[in-house]
Design a protein that fits this description.
heterodimer; A: alpha+beta; Aminopeptidase; 7-stranded mixed beta sheet; 7 strands; B: Aminopeptidase
Chain lengths: 222, 195
Amino acid sequence: MGEKPLAVFIFQPPPGLPRIQRANSGEGKDKETMNIATSLYTGKLVRLTRIELEKDPETLAEWSKDASLARMLNVTPARPLASEQIKKRLESMEKEIDEKREMFYFHIRPLEEERLLGWGKIYWIVWPSQIANIQMAIGPSEQNKGYGADAFRLFLRLAFDELNLNRLTVILPEYNLRGIRFIEKFGFSQEARRREVILRDGRRWDSLHFGLLRSEWSEKHD
Amino acid sequence: MINDIFRGKLARLSAENPETYAEHFSRWWHDSEYGRLLDLSPGMLFSPKRVKEWLEKELEKDPPEMWLFGIRALKDDKLIGFVDLSGATPHGDTFVGIGIGEREYWGKGYGTEAMKLVLRFAFAELGLHRVSLNVFDYNPRGVKSYEKAGFRMEGRVREMILRDGQRHDVFFMGVLREDWFKQFGAEYGLESNIS
């Protein structure tokens, strides 16, 4: 075992036959070779890190005092949460991640600092179909500094280049215009408009589903 | 008020003991076509015992997280399928799932009628604002049935399923209470004063 030389076949298609495409070379993607030194978790401004159970809940609790973040995400009612409640939720989420293996969740921090800028997750992964949902939030005081775009690029690369997903879905309320503009810049397009799913401030709003296929993804989005 | 709301012309919505559901669900799941029409994830072939344990816990919850009904054919009182409403949000939206496990009852209107009955339950009894569902692009019979029950197309989500080496799209459909009352209110002797 292990002594046999490794056989290498180089397949050259005869003239007239189409060349075989590399399995992971998405159209519109200019990267051709793997660079093992490229960090999946480090961007130009931010890095993706693990949860700090002792410190992060306080920051998240601070953000939950205002409904703005929660309302922009989805249908779960916004509510202020105490840091102890948040810590418990993070712990049970870590447990679920460990058992189910269908979610990746990271906390976003600046390159050289420990403070929490936001969080993001790739969730509802269905491995056989190579699909998942993606969601990200940047703290109210940390917005408009380019952190979100830098982090989102990392999440997309992780999803397509490491998890080998074929498709990502983002679900947004129709009133989250900034979020819609943000994901459209990354190539997501609207695919479904679920009518009147959300009841807030006394009126009905639609919930929008956006999709990005591997073939539409480009790392050139800056 | 009309109170006989669980019975149609072909079928009725029934309550079953966990054991009965479990025996049928386990058997139906062994039909892979049934499983692939119903679920985007690969089917697990659970034993009746395992299904029973899960259902016992689920059906004990009060108020229920899942409104589950059996579908029984009126002509022979046979349990032929199930329908459930689950994942209701505080905004009045819920997802519906339906499956006819007994193949000889396919394509004869049983599913459509059960869907109509569960929508009547959702709007006339639960007071929901809308009901949602997903259906796969290789299930045109399902799409047609749901349209008959009042659902409208709300989108086509691309390449959600990879099966037999091919990628398939998923349709999102929804029905709003206002539209449902307009379409079916008269049939059921109902009139809505809320939109």
